[in-house]
Amino acid sequence: MKPVLILSAGLALALAACGQKTDTAPAEPTSAAAAPAGEMSGTPMAAMGEMSGTGAGAVTAVDPAAGTVTIDHGPIPGVNWPAMTMAFTATPTVLQKAKVGEQVEFDVTVKGPAAQVTDIRPH
After folding, report:
1. Bridge partners of 120?
2. pLDDT at position 7 over 90
3. pTM exceeds 0.70 for this model
4. Interatomic CA distance for residues 30 and 14, integer angstroms
5. 71 in Cβ contact with 62 (< 8 Å)
């Protein structure tokens, strides 16, 4: 069972935009919902410039036709994100390297509302 944390207003807004449940009081944990491919519009981060960070998690889907990779990842401090499952846009090299079910470490660049995985490595 994962611990439930009380969220600040800003983090709650960011999670709501990603499809996360955002109770302000402790509640039963819920599974993370996938956010649209690389989109974080409507979040406080959407107004910021470019940020980058490194995350770790499990690849849950790869969609070469859409140019996306979905990762169930832990917190990414470099971009101020909590743990969640999210579909990211990805470079062609990342799409070739990513394997469903694999534990990975990855680099992500966030520009406004768009998030892209720029590198991925087995972890």
Report:
1. 106
2. no
3. no
4. 16
5. no
